[in-house]
Amino acid sequence: MEGFKIGELSTNSFVHKELSRKYLIYIPKSYEGKKEVPLLLNFHPFGTSAEYQLGISDFRQLSEDKEFILVYPEGAELASGEPHWNPLKKDPTNKSNSDDINFINDLIDLISNNLNINSQKVYAVGYSNGADMAYGLATYLSSKISAIAAVSGSMYELMSTGDQPSHSTSVLNMTGTSDSIRPYEGIDGSLLAVDEALSYWKEINAIKSSPIIISETSNSEDVIISSYTTDNQILTVANYKIINGGHNWFNLNISGKDTNNIIWDFFENTRTSLKYPISNNSKSYSGAFNEYTFVNQGNNKYGIKLDSSSTIDSLTGLSTVKFSDTSIDINKDVIGTFNQVTGLNTDSGEMFRLYNAAFARFPDADGLKYWIDQFSSGKNTRRVVAQSFLGSAEFTEKYGSNVSDETYVNNLYKNVLGRDADAEGLNYWVGNLSSGIETRYEALLGFAESAENKALFTELTGFN
Fold this sequence. Notes:
By secondary structure, the protein is of the alpha/beta class. The protein has helices at 50-56, 60-66, 100-114, 129-140, 157-161, 194-204, 259-269, 330-338, 347-359, 365-376, 382-390, 393-399, 405-417, 423-435, 440-448, 451-461, and strands at residues 9-16, 19-26, 37-43, 69-73, 76-77, 83-84, 117-127, 147-151, 170-176, 212-218, 221-229, 235-242, 253-254, 257-258, 282-284, 292-298, 301-306, 313-314, 320-322, 327-329.
């Protein structure tokens, strides 16, 4: 952590492609390095500096409150001495030939090598030319950028005509309808209109639903907010249309939240669950869906294996997996499920295990989300959830109807732990059920939360 000071703003630099590249970094006082924390990159407009951007959008208090690393990079100077961001990979008409996309890639690596950064929570925000840069990162560095916020900036037409991003990325846009520098309607042959940019990212993020649109008033300005969510209700694209707003870093105040808090809330609410590889490839398996399980291998890699096998097939590069009875979307049905699980001994981890135990299959994303919400909110206790599962047709199909206690316990061993019952365990559970010490739903909870099943959970999710 040489050159980094906890609780202080530090000015650092390193040489990138023969240019000395400067950045400011702030590490919150609470940072100890024991757990992964998010990283926020904040980009200044053309002709200004990292210090200027800090002055108009100071996220340091939020960095303390939310515990994330805050970085203000600075653009390369043009011949005129004015700092500028080059958000494109190649464009002979652009002001700069500086390889800023690669600079930010290397800056993220440098910081991640020195601090404990959560690679799933790397965000970019920018104003004007800095917002253009945020769009460039979402386009060309989507494997590392989870979400962006663009304030009074534009997405260049060239960004939408080349190779599409390798991963989907959440996008928040804020633009005034009277902006003459980055017009809301775009500039033909150069800048996309805001609606065109939104449509592009809706497609990238596989959004098919209509937006939720609300009108707010902020400091006497009318703001129309459009929010787009995926099928599993994850916010991924949002637009703040400031009526008659100019070319500004907007000082919004909506429902008691300023611009910085609105942006950070967007980043948090996306749950960074859309770090999905984009692909149109599929693979077929001969068995039924419930004969297979999925594995989170870490570093955005996922696998699939037969329940009866230890061989794991990679899902990298696939968009769809077809089984004999159904097809699933890797992004929505596999990654969307894994990304709801936040730890071993958490509400989400417990609901994942209970769901998996009850139905002997990988939880579907929508169903898991529903039961996590029910349990976490206190609407349902774990016992109520377990009772609900026992009363379902799917549970009856899996465990049988009106079966003996011995058959029920044998099915628990098979469906939850994937093995035959041992004599001692079988006698214990059958005895408890027969004597009324425990009910069948309590036995289900016991198996779901057993040390053996938690070990299986760790193998699937990586949490321990």
